[in-house]
Design a protein that fits this description.
Length: 176
């Protein structure tokens, strides 16, 4: 399991281990976020890692700009690579948790390599509680698409918008 340095484990009573080859969460900002993920080592996941870090794939697609006019490949290359491999669009105002197949294979412009069957067989998607990137009062919440309102629901808080993650008052508010 990997956990970004800007994440806070709010509730450790949950299982973070993957039941399949690869597990991650769709965050409150509505991304298939790599802020935390869990990988079970097997042949499928070893190939997944090779595919994600493929220099050839990076060179082919790094020029593609997202809806902000930036290359997701230059900002978060691993996440951009995962998006391309699974055919996930760079952005959706509709929650990926409600889109058929989590948005998998809904953008085929970057040559996805996995089928729906293979993705379902090997990927476990956790809900937003496992990666809260937007929270009222802590960020501008301009992309707070998968909203949570009850702090008691939050499992992992991901401080991606420059919030003061080491603010003692904030941390005490998040602790149970």
């Amino acid at each position: 399991m990997t956990l970004d340095a800007d994440m806070f484990m709010v509730n450790m009573d949950y299982d973070f281990a993957t039941k399949k080859s690869f597990t991650y969460a769709i965050d409150s900002g509505n991304t298939h976020c790599m802020g935390w993920h869990s990988i079970k080592i097997n042949d499928w996941s070893k190939q997944l890692v090779k595919n994600i870090v493929s220099d050839e794939r990076y060179k082919r697609f790094r020029h593609i700009m997202n809806h902000h006019g930036h290359s997701l490949w230059d900002i978060w290359s691993e996440q951009a690579s995962w998006y391309s491999l699974a055919g996930i669009p760079a952005h959706s105002d509709t929650p990926f948790l409600t889109i058929p197949h989590f948005g998998w294979l809904s953008d085929t412009s970057q040559d996805p390599i996995y089928s729906h069957d293979e993705l379902y067989e090997n990927i476990e998607i956790k809900d937003t509680r496992y990666n809260v990137t937007e929270w009222f009062g802590e960020s501008d919440c301009c992309y707070n698409i998968n909203k949570l309102y009850n702090p008691e629901e939050v499992i992992l808080r991901h401080f991606v918008s420059g919030q003061l993650w080491n603010n003692p008052a904030l941390i005490n508010n998040w602790k149970k």
